[in-house]
Structures are given as C-alpha cells and as structure tokens.
Amino acid sequence: MRVIIAEDSLLAREGLIRVLTRLGHEVLAAAVRAEQVLALVARHNPDVAVLDIRLPPTFNDEGLRLGAVIRARHPRVAVLVLSHYIDHTYATALLDTSEIGVGYLLKDNLANDTMLDDVLHRIAGGGTAVDPEVVSALLPAAADEPLAHLTQREREVLTLMAEGLSDQGIADRLQVALTTVGTHTGNVFRKLGIVEKASSNRRVSAVLTYLASRNQLSS
Length: 219
What we know:
Elements: E1 2-6, H1 10-22, E2 26-31, H2 37-44, E3 48-52, H3 62-73, E4 78-83, H4 88-97, E5 102-106, H5 113-124, E6 128-130, H6 132-136, H7 152-162, H8 167-174, H9 178-191, H10 202-218
Parallel strand pairs: 1-2, 1-3, 3-4, 4-5, 5-6
C-alpha cells in the first residue's frame, strides 16, 4: 500500500522506510515536522499515514491532532499513531476522532515487521488497532463500572476487539468456534448498553466505552 511517514528521528524514520519497503509498501514521502504532513497527504492521497505522536515544533501531541484532521479531511486515509508512552487518554482521543481506520501502537512493542504489516492492513481495511499493553493496563475493573459485569472471557474478547481483530480473528486467537465469539460479543454489547444503529460501529463503541470507563476511574 501507499504510505506517508511523519517521524523527526533520523534513525526511526529511515528504519520505518526500510521496513515498509521490504514489506512491499511504497513510501511516498517522509515528513520531519508537523506542519509538513497535511500538504503531503493532500498531494499524495496515501492509503495510510504513519505518525509519531510527538513531532516538532512542540513535541507534545502533534501526531494525535494531525491524525484527527487527516481522518476528518481524508476519510479514506487510515492513520497509525506510534508512541513510546503508555497513555490511554491518547488512545481514547484517537479512537474518538474516527470509528474506523485508526491505530495506536507502542514503538517498543513492534517486535517484528509482520506485526506492523498486519496492523497496516487492518486499519487500511477499516479496522482499529490499539496496543495490547495499553488495553491490558486498563483491564482491572471496579465493581461499580460497566466492565465489572463482564466475565473474564468477555473481557478477553473486548481486549481483542480493541486490538482490531475480526470475529474470525478472535476465534482463531482464543481457539473457539466463531459462533461462540458471536455470543460473547453480543453479551459485551448488551452488558455495556450498546445498541445497534446504522450510524455507529458497535465494536468501536465497545472499545470506547471500555477506555472511557478507565479514564473516569483514573481522573
């Protein structure tokens, strides 16, 4: 697929270019500053924009804000934000910008190029991907929150939803029947009070509910 990179670190930028090229993707352009990104996206119309979360000039959350703008202006362009930091508020904010085509991963957890390739294809296909470590950090549920009503297996299914896996992918990971996954996801939606609407993605809504609940507990 066609990719644009925004990464200010020379070594990280060149490393991404080499890995993506080796995987067969075309790197159309590489930005080093936040203000360069939107023009490059408009010019090249990539399939995916891979953004470091902290870019010049302020090294704050430029990548996150750029991701929101890209999804709003170019809904066919998927966004993958890479970070060194476990911050579930970043993941929540990114998912809240778009119901599809977004990912938030920790750089240190990209163990191999196959993992990166899988995530790129997943979000380019309209899925979501949240780093498992970010989600796992939020797993313990308080008794008075919605997640407390989920069984352990239902929480596992919700965690895999947050990773962006399809029902078949969840079934393969947990080594259970596809119909069993359907039952668990239905229970998750019901227990979290998420009803089916033509205008919403229940899977992403479930993940957002999960992350929002943890944000509330930590505030």
